[in-house]
Specification:
heterodimer, A: 234 residues, alpha/beta, four-stranded antiparallel β-sheet, 7 helices, 10 strands, 29% strand, globular, B: 414 residues, alpha+beta, ten-stranded mixed β-sheet, two-stranded antiparallel sheet, 12 strands
Chain lengths: 234, 414
């Protein structure tokens, strides 16, 4: 059993790809613990392994070696469909490119994860509307994504990540496609989620974004080279 | 975990996707629509034709009729074949006397193509000598007058029963030509009866039209006036019941062997062969049309597969998103498979609707098309089941490709 309040415990996680005849060590022995209500920023140059770490934490990818414990359970070698189940129920994803489905309305986009949820959910619409309310987008629920601005789209995407009431939200460069005004709006939104008890892990190379986080992890060559925690920026 | 829910979910997603791409969906459906419509309509039309064919088979005595025709004596009897008198009027008498199972017997004395003359006008038509049983064997209907009677046979009467062709040629203005006279090879015949016009349309042609061209005189008259001997060309025998046929065939064979002095220079033909021919024709129609329809449905299936593959590569990112937010490979598989099935099922239904329209048109345009069913249920069930299966099969590969995509790669895809 892991200590209470510990979401992830990664020890000596390795992820190796084969590109042609060459082995690429995307993660080269990562040790990391993520605790409840943490705001974690993962920084590093491209190719440092931060995206691979995100995919691993988000159950999109599984490590080649090492031990990974999620909510006290060893998930180092679970299968595809179990990983899909965890993605559907425990983790929220926010992407740089928003990744909303263009043909669906805002409301349907937000409800989409519920389609794949294995839980019986009664009031799907009501849940989606309240998620949209949390991000301040309930008034645009009948619009399609291409009728929204980038900032609005990202807020919808955050509402989508909230719909399954996840414990952890993973964001991959969530402000990478936004201007500074929208960037701070999104970061304020993240901060408010943190206050609601959600744990956040954000991949970024934007120092300003990293500034919001109380814990900053720097990666290089598949390794964590710095892990510093400090008082949260007000 | 609820497989039914997954399928309902998938189907509704599929329908939404089909609806969102109306034109593309309609185009990809077109192969299935045409395939199903062609299959059902062709089967319907062929079934209608076969119904007509069966009707005309029944009209010529059906399975109960035997035909006795001359043939060369077998090799072993060649040197003594001359002792047989061949098929003669005496055979008819022998059969009538000795075989009660032969309910009706008639000879045919075929004069083939003759020139008929009335009031200086000429017309060529067939002339045949028969006996009174002919009308019972062929179940022919007289419009006016009577058929050849026993007394006509006994007296070798110069009387004739005409078909609708001669009636139309010479007596168009008068409905009833009974009592009028016709000259054939300088012999005068009095019309005693007039057949009703016969019609059975097969493939747009009256398969019985030749029957309207045949005119009948007493067999004895024909033999006396044209043959000068008592030879006949063939003989028709009708049994009362199918169960009697084997005995009847044997008895006819025995009797004729006797009258022909042991020479096997005759052949007894049953309608079994014709029935077999008809069945063969039915089968060849069914298989060739079925093959054509199957190929067109296959082409339709390839069309669906093509569209589905395009749709998968167009939506790789969407697949990545769906997987990232929790869709299993299995969910994606069902989503894409449902789309293919929805396309083929909707296409199949539209095809069925089109086939009903085609069959309605066929009924109006094809002569004697009333026997065409506008809703051939069996063909429709098969057509629909086949097209749905094709859709399902052609959806499997694209759906598998979609389901196997790695979420990370799919999300990175531009």
């Amino acid at each position: 059993m892991s200590p209470a309040g510990e979401i992830f415990a990664l020890s000596d996680i390795r992820r190796t790809y084969k590109v042609g005849n060459e082995l690429v060590h995307a993660l080269d022995g990562v040790d990391l613990k993520i605790h409840d209500r943490e705001f974690l920023a993962v920084v590093g140059t491209s190719g440092s392994g931060k995206s691979t770490l995100m995919h691993t934490l988000g159950f999109m990818d599984s490590p080649t070696a090492g031990r990974m414990v999620f909510e006290g359970r060893d998930v180092s070698s679970i299968g595809r469909s179990e990983r899909a189940r965890l993605r559907a129920s425990r983790i929220g994803f926010v992407f740089q490119a928003f990744n909303l489905l263009p043909r669906l309305s805002v409301l349907d986009n937000v409800m989409l994860p519920l389609v794949y949820s294995r839980d019986q959910i009664k009031d799907k619409r009501g849940r989606a509307l309240s998620a949209l309310e949390r991000v301040g987008m309930q008034h645009r629920c009948t619009h399609t994504p291409n009728q929204l601005t980038g900032g609005e789209r990202q807020r919808v995407a955050i509402a989508r990540s909230l719909i399954n009431q996840p414990r952890l939200i993973l964001a991959d460069e969530p402000t990478g496609n936004l201007d500074s005004k929208n960037r701070s709006k999104i970061m304020d939104l993240f901060a408010s989620l943190l206050d609601e008890g959600i744990t956040l892990a954000v991949v970024t190379h934007d120092d300003e974004v990293a500034h919001y986080a109380q814990r900053r992890i720097r990666m290089q060559d598949g390794k964590i080279i710095a892990d510093e925690t400090r008082a949260r920026h007000a | 975990m609820n497989p039914l829910g997954d399928i309902i979910n998938g189907a509704s997603n599929g329908l939404a996707e089909v609806w969102a791409n109306k034109v593309r969906s309609l185009l990809s459906m077109s192969g299935i629509i045409l395939g199903v419509a062609a299959l059902v309509a062709m089967v319907g039309i062929v079934q209608g034709m076969l119904t007509n064919m069966r009707a005309s088979f029944e009209m010529s005595g059906g399975i109960l009729r035997l035909e006795v025709v001359p043939r060369d004596a077998p090799e072993s009897q060649q040197h003594i074949a001359g002792i047989s008198p061949g098929m003669t009027w005496r055979d008819i008498g022998a059969i009538q006397k000795a075989i009660p199972l032969a309910a009706y017997v008639t000879p045919e004395v075929d004069m083939r193509w003759e020139r008929f003359i009335v009031d200086g006008r000429r017309e060529f038509a067939f002339l045949r000598g028969v006996s009174p049983d002919f009308i019972d064997i062929y179940r022919r209907e007289l419009e006016f007058g009577r058929f050849i009677a026993d007394s006509d046979i006994a007296n070798k009467s110069p009387v004739i029963v005409i078909g609708s062709n001669i009636r139309d040629a010479f007596f168009r203005d008068e409905v009833n030509a009974v009592g009028r006279q016709i000259r054939i090879r300088n012999q005068i015949y009095t019309i005693i009866g007039q057949f009703a016009h016969m019609e059975a349309m097969v493939g747009g042609r009256n398969s019985l039209r030749w029957q309207n061209r045949i005119n009948y005189i007493p067999a004895t008259t024909a033999m006396a006036r044209y043959r000068g001997n008592d030879s006949i060309d063939s003989m028709e025998i009708l049994a009362d019941r199918v169960e009697d046929l084997p005995d009847l065939i044997e008895q006819v064979s025995n009797t004729l062997t006797q009258t022909h002095r042991g020479i096997q220079d005759f052949e007894i033909r049953t309608q079994e062969e014709q029935l077999q021919e008809m069945r063969k024709l039915e089968n060849s129609f069914t298989y060739s049309l079925g093959g054509i329809a199957a190929i067109s449905l296959l082409v339709g299936g390839i069309g669906i597969m093509n569209v589905m593959l395009a749709s998968v590569s167009e939506r790789i990112r969407e697949i990545g998103v769906r997987k990232a937010i929790g869709a299993r490979s299995h969910d994606i598989f069902i989503q894409f498979l449902s789309e293919a099935v929805v396309i083929s099922v909707v296409g199949g239904l539209l095809g069925l609707a089109a086939s009903v329209g085609l069959l309605h048109a066929a009924r109006d345009f094809i002569p004697q098309g009333e026997s065409i069913q506008t809703v051939p249920v069996t063909a429709m069930v098969y057509g629909f089941a086949f097209s749905s299966t094709i859709g399902l099969l052609s959806g499997i590969y694209p759906a598998l490709r979609a389901a196997r995509l790695d979420p990370i790669d799919a999300l990175r895809y531009e």
